[in-house]
């Protein structure tokens, strides 16, 4: 009897002890999850501040949200235009709200561009008009513009001068033509141009654009590359401040990016984009660059059979696959980089390729209108093929993402509004006297472009 009672007490004690251990283990796991969540939130908010009701820009951003919701809803109620006319590029819509007006420029044009990027109007509205506050982007940029980021960090809003907006709108047709010819262009995608008018207060133009650095959770270094040396170094020390330091050319010196089989495509595309900007008489634009290591699951995912099938069905075959002798690394700051003219090779038959595992050559069709493409001449198709030798990664920001063998790179050409006018010519003369023999960015567009 006594032994039975002792055994029962011992069993109950063990049961209570096990329950306590399980409870402690759950509490420990919960504490670790909270810790990691807090660290993730701190990392997510690095370089940005929430524009809450106490923030100086809260009223402005609240009006922008309200105006954007009406503007996007109007676009949602209108079918995407298959054919754009001159009137679409000149269109301006004005919507009145309590206390302000919102103007939207060339709405049909930008709606078609968003559609080409597979950004639905619902997604666009959810990002720009969600209940979450906009974020203010804080960096070491010398720009006088205000930068706002959607709460999911997918889209940037940047205030622009009237001159810059007029320049973009006057060249919007050329911009769209270039993107149609080069759908994998590295140029940042402008998704909307607007103007907000608050009586007796402000009249602000702003542009919505795709964020080059999305998603940014694992990016820990960013560069702004212009290909020159004067004034192109940034002290990486943040001084304990919660800002993002965007480094420059001289910080990048001696480093390489490794693109493997995408190198030829990349150099060709940079040349094509630069040639377009040269035709617009533009200089001082930058190549934004960031990178992060590919994790094991990403490396394995790239080589998985399912992903390989997707990549193969989105590709076209080429007779001129990059050779092993083509060095995979690109020193962005070599002095002769701008003088290299990559060979433009011929295309293959256009049949789906039986790609090798992990291959990077090919052309992603990306929902292109095949019936339109088929009407092109052989020479036009050849020219089209020559500029589209890449496989886009399967991610939301595929246009600005390039996967190398071990790293993922985020790239985009930005700041395309500086025209080489008389002010820049005078600045060029002064810098030639001030920095003899040194490379600076204020030069003729023919010299600036690679």
Describe the structure in your own words.
With 450 residues, this protein is α+β, with helices and mostly antiparallel strands. The protein contains 15 helices and 15 strands. The strands form three sheets. An eight-stranded antiparallel beta sheet has the order 1-4-5-6-8-7-3-2. Strands 10-9-12-15-14 form a five-stranded mixed beta sheet.
**Number of discrete helical segments:** 15
Order of helices and strands: HEHHEEHHEEEHHEEEEHEHEHHEHHEEHH
What oligomeric state best describes the polypeptide chains here? single chain
- Average pLDDT, all residues: 77
Radius of gyration: 26 Å
Topology summary:
Elements: H1 2-44, E1 48-50, H2 58-76, H3 86-90, E2 92-97, E3 100-105, H4 107-116, H5 121-128, E4 135-137, E5 147-149, E6 155-160, H6 162-170, H7 172-181, E7 190-198, E8 202-210, E9 222-225, E10 246-248, H8 249-252, E11 257-258, H9 263-279, E12 286-293, H10 296-302, H11 305-313, E13 329-330, H12 370-373, H13 378-386, E14 401-403, E15 407-414, H14 422-434, H15 445-448
Helix pairs in contact: 2-5
Question: What is the gist of this entry?
Answer:
The protein is an alpha+beta fold. The protein is built from 15 helices and 15 strands.
Annotation keywords:
15 helices; five-stranded mixed beta sheet; alpha+beta; 450 residues; 38% helix
């Amino acid at each position: 009897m006594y032994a039975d009672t002792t055994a029962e007490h011992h069993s109950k004690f063990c049961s209570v002890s096990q329950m306590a251990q399980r409870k402690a283990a759950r509490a420990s796991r919960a504490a670790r999850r909270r810790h990691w969540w807090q660290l993730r939130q701190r990392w997510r908010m690095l370089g940005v501040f929430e524009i809450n009701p106490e923030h100086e820009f809260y009223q402005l951003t609240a009006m922008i949200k309200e105006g954007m919701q009406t503007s996007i809803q109007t676009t949602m109620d209108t079918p995407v235009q298959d054919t754009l006319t001159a009137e679409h590029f000149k269109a301006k819509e004005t919507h009145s709200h309590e206390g302000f007006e919102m103007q939207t420029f060339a709405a049909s044009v930008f709606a078609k561009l968003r559609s080409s990027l597979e950004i639905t109007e619902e997604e666009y509205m959810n990002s720009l008009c969600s209940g979450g506050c906009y974020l203010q982007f804080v960096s070491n940029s010398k720009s006088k513009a205000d930068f706002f980021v959607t709460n999911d960090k997918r889209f940037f809003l940047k205030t622009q001068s009237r001159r810059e907006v007029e320049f973009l709108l006057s060249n919007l047709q050329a911009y769209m033509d270039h993107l149609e010819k080069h759908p994998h262009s590295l140029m940042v995608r402008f998704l909307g141009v607007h103007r907000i008018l608050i009586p007796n207060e402000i009249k602000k133009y702003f542009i919505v654009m795709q964020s080059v650095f999305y998603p940014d959770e694992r990016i820990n270094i960013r560069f702004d590359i212009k290909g020159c040396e004067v004034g192109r170094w940034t002290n990486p020390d943040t001084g304990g401040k919660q800002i993002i330091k965007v480094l420059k050319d001289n910080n990048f010196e001696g480093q390489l990016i490794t693109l493997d089989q995408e190198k030829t495509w990349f150099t060709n595309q940079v040349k094509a984009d630069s040639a377009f900007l040269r035709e617009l008489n533009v200089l001082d634009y930058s190549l934004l660059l960031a990178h992060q290591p590919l994790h094991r699951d990403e490396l394995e995912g790239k080589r998985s059979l399912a992903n390989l099938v997707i990549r193969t069905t989105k590709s076209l075959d080429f007779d001129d696959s990059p050779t092993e002798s083509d060095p995979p690394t690109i020193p962005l700051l070599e002095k002769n980089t701008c003088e290299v003219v990559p060979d433009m090779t011929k295309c293959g038959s256009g049949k789906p390729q039986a790609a090798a595992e992990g291959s990077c050559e090919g052309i992603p069709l990306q929902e292109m209108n095949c019936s339109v493409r088929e009407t092109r001449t052989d020479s036009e198709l050849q020219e089209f093929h020559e500029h589209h030798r890449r496989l886009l990664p399967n991610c939301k920001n595929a246009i600005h993402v390039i996967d190398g063998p071990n790293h993922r790179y985020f790239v985009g050409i930005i700041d395309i509004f500086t025209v080489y006018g008389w002010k820049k010519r005078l600045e060029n003369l002064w810098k030639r006297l001030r920095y003899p023999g040194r490379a600076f960015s204020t030069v003729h567009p023919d010299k600036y472009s690679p």
